Amino acid sequence: MDSQMANYSFHPESSESSESSEKNDHEFGTIHKKTRRREKNRLAAQKTRQKQTQRADILHQEHEQLEKKNVSLRREIEQLKDVLKQWKELVQEHEPRCQMMNAPKSQSELVNVFPCEWSSLEILATY
């Protein structure tokens, strides 16, 4: 039995080094986990920043398109105002010479003024 115990002799240094090795392995694992977590977090933050940049780019493009549309619509408004002005001037020029200005206004009176073959829509369209 003594010979067996000699084989299993207690060496405090080897026990400490084995505990130290386990401790180092544990610390290494912890450090490795922290490093992986940091890397994962860094990649997630980078992805988020890219999405924000893309969204900002899209919004900027939409803004530019809306600005162009706004300019185009403002031009169209000005053109329509010009057309309206021309029509008003035309009506003003026509009013003094218009025979219909003194014509009866009710539809029953219009029937007496215009030929029978004209439909009421034609009468109203010309009025």
TrEMBL record:
It holds the Pfam family bZIP_1. GO terms for molecular function: DNA-binding transcription factor activity, RNA polymerase II-specific; RNA polymerase II cis-regulatory region sequence-specific DNA binding. SMART domains: BRLZ. Residues 31-40 have a biased composition (Basic residues). InterPro entries: AP-1 (IPR000837), bZIP (IPR004827), bZIP_sf (IPR046347). Residues 33-94 form the BZIP domain. Residues 1-63 are annotated as: Disordered. GO terms for cellular component: nucleus. Residues 20-30 have a biased composition (Basic and acidic residues). Gene3D superfamilies: 1.20.5.170. This is Basic leucine zipper transcriptional factor ATF-like protein. The lineage of its organism: Eukaryota, Metazoa, Chordata, Craniata, Vertebrata.
